[in-house]
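In practice, a research group might receive sequence data for several interacting partners and want a quick structural hypothesis before committing to experiments. The following worked case mirrors that situation: the sequences arrive first, and a predicted assembly follows.
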Amino acid sequence: MSLQRFWSRGAIYLVLIAFCLFYLMPFYVMFITGLKPYEDLNVTRMWDLPKGIYLEGIIEAWKRVAPNFRNSAMITIPAALISSFIGSMNGYVFAKWRFPGSDTLFVLFLVGMFLPYQGILIPLVRTLQIVGLYGSPVGLIMVHCIFGIPITALLFRSYYASIPNELIDASKIDGCGFLGIYRYVLLPISMPAFAVVLLWQFTSIWNDYLIGLVVLSSPRLAPINVAVQNIAGSWSVEWNVQMSAALIAALPTIVVYLALGKLFMRGLLAGSLKG
Amino acid sequence: MSHRYLNRREFLKVAALLGGTAILAACAPKAAPTTPPKKEEAAPPVAKATAPPKVEEAAGELEIFSWWTSGGEVEALNAVYEIFSAAYPKVTIENAALAGGQGQGGNMKALLETRMMGGEPPDSFQVHLGRELIDSHVIADRMEPLDWLYAEEGWYDVFPEDVVDIASYEGKPYSVPVNIHRSNVMWYRPSRLAEVGVTEPPATWDDFFVVAADLKVAGIPAMAIAEQGGGGGFCGHVLENILVSVMGPAKYRGLFDGSTAWDDEVVTKSLEIMDRILDYANRDYLSTSWGDINDRFVSDDGPAMMVMGDWTHGVLMSKGFKDYHWTTAPGTAGLFMVLSDSFGLPKNAPHRNNAVAFLRIIGSKDGQDAFNPIKGSIPARTDGDRSKYDEYLNEAMDDFGTDEGVPSIQHGAAVKQSFLVDYDIGLADLAANHDVAKAQRMLVEAAKVADLGE
Amino acid sequence: MRILGNKTVGQSTSTYRGERGLAASPLRSAIRRRAPWLRGDTALAILVLIPSIIAVAVFIYGFIIWTGYISTVKWNTVVEDHTFVGLQNWIQLFKMDRFHWDLRNLALYAVGFMSQCIVFGFLIAVLLDQKIKGEALFRTIVIFPFAVSGIVTGVAWRWLMQPTTGINLLFVKMGLENFYFEWNAHPKWGILAITIAAAWQFTGYVMALYLAGLRGISEEVREAARVDGAGTWALYRRIIIPLLMPVTFTAIVLTGMGSIRVFDLVTILAGPAFTTDTLAFHMYQSTFGQYRFSMGATVGFFMILLSLFLVVPYLRSMQFEAER
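A structural hypothesis for the assembly, expressed as tokens:
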């Protein structure tokens, strides 16, 4: 290739690598700090690699946040599954069963996607207390499912909307009603959509901080991000423990992302691009 | 999106991932079982000033809220729990401790408020003695008065009158103090002071600035300051000691009942001193958090002095640090700025009997003498066993008996929580902008909004 | 027609699964010949939707109204007080110094956050679109930060932004001996420092949007431009950027929403006093830290109103797209 092209290609790679370093830098810091022993934690030596692998930070962090990790799992997995299923049903209705007003209704649902939670915290807490679900993981799962209604409906609706109506019509002729169509036509081919929505919901719910902070009534029940913030905000907790705790909190979503990155990408794009 | 079936591999991957997380979670050590609070053996109706409940054969649970999550604090609380468990082996104690967030105990206080508001109180909770409790839960009619308990346990004779006063609202005490901490202490490093030829720590603020100037020339920060965050409260702590040194205890108390205005020139003078101190503080004081300041203090290039409460003693000791000594904060000799951790009895506590049992222990000689030496505070009782306390604590106990007591602002004795938040924000503003007039305006506004003195 | 790989779907003579349904309900096939089954099924569809409708109506719209109500009463201490005071809280809010700071910070944050995400997101997408080797790897790394939570981001960046270490240390190591910057603790521009951390987390997402958009621009369009003599710069300026306007619009709306809502990051990276205060944090502290419930509700409701400004045009444009 021409010299000019060589340099411009080179420049492209250089810039990309620079960006990648920027995006990896905080992970690097978290990782090496987590592996250092307490004596090695020093402002001047922050960027230095640890002299060996010391697990004390990670062990201490795990001791502190393991219950919270479990809480998060117990809340996130059911919530993700349930809200995906609900979204699938809702998306199906909005996509294939138009009735007068269904479009307006859909838009009203979507407004919920943009809701700043601060606008409804006080009523949320009061309602849960009245209903008796305040402080219970079940209450938190329910809240996450409800707040997930708009986005899951949007994702599934986009997916189902692109299924040709001829397919639906064919099955109607074959005798399928509402549930039949869902069960025999859409559900079998919904797996990609389910994967995308499950991942999206899993990530959103796992990474939640505010709702978990406000809805749970006891430190023992707190999800992992609340626990990490506690550690980060408390008196003299060693940095290696703080960083390890943050890494532990980040691990599931990172693993999920690495393993299923392509689906993750599809999830990102489907929600925001129209159709 | 393509409409193909998710191929087998991808589907298995998703299933494996979700399953894997579930298994990992299941392997995590199980948290203590969540038993919803159940009403214990027919708890007697809320007593006014009479019949205390029987506490033999106490069983069930006991949920205690606190923000004691650091070393020293946890052990001290555990020492009390041991005494309790020895007396009531059938009770399972649930220690619900949540650390700060914004300021001391921030998240815990928020959580507590939400639960109290919803009518689901814990059995007891740590709270600063004084306005912090009174203006948050007592006036909302959510706490039981404890005069009957005080009478039964003889606490009126054993707790100093000042302390009982602080604990009381409309004549009845609402919580049981477990300790007394002193706010007006200045910790200093003799070796650092020696570097500029100073052997005695400064006794007044004027003296302080002379020493500070010398230290600055030698490249040593004179004062440790940790004012990270929206309103951390560190400067709030320092300021309360400046306030009392500038205006004297009587006028200081007037700040809380409206007789001293917050725009008075004595407040201006105090803020100016605070501002000046910042010039001699560690350079990164806006990024150092309260939790980190002790590390800074003990480091080789750390500051020479620090005005901080006497829990610092326990922290420094736990770091194995020896190069420090203490004196009263400049200008506050003869004064004892009081703050106290205490426990109250919420109405409708789910396990009331157990809660009352706990309060008895926390107010007892054994309980306090087990708790305080570890915590680094002195007992609220005047009959503590001196032999269990170290040099500093014995000195403090002496002073507590003789010095004049004044209530702390920063630690909830003198003011309500909502004012405290604004007060701390005002001081954070001063730390960032060095505008004394502006900070004072903010304090005046805060006092107005909080109806201080009404 | 050919769908689903090699299976041919069409009339009932195929191996289509619908046959099972057919076999199971001969009665139904009799019924379906009449119009009513259509309406019956639509009723079922609506029935399925009803729980969600109720949930959304209560938990979103109902709560919004409830918050609005609380903002008009006098509940500012622990003692619940529902005395109606109309707009008093609102007037007080608009006079508050803290509120002015919140708005200032919102504007600064939005500008900083939006511009970084859009500029860098677009730039990286363009570079990735140049048929380079390892595109998937680069893409994965850039989106990586999006998978982690605001709290984790804050914990990492708080240490990076410590003046005595972190980024400053890096600069010192590179030779700038006296480099000292307070980053998020800076009394004036701390909020902009926070946008660096926020953009670090979100740029990947915007990049993915742009990448998808770029992929959607067909080769022919680019060829045509090249044939017409447009150089690379003109190609981008005149054709590609305008064609990507919908993506840019989406990015603006999403980053705008993020700016209004930002809470986790600001909690951890807080600077002194109000320098990094946001509406979200103001609401939380007023309500749960100071027990000023009505004030908190006022701030919360204001945030909702602000969000509507962004949401409504966005949804309207979505409807237009759907109708096209």
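Before designing any experiment, note the following. Chain C is about 70% helix and 0% strand. The longest helix of chain C spans residues 36-70.
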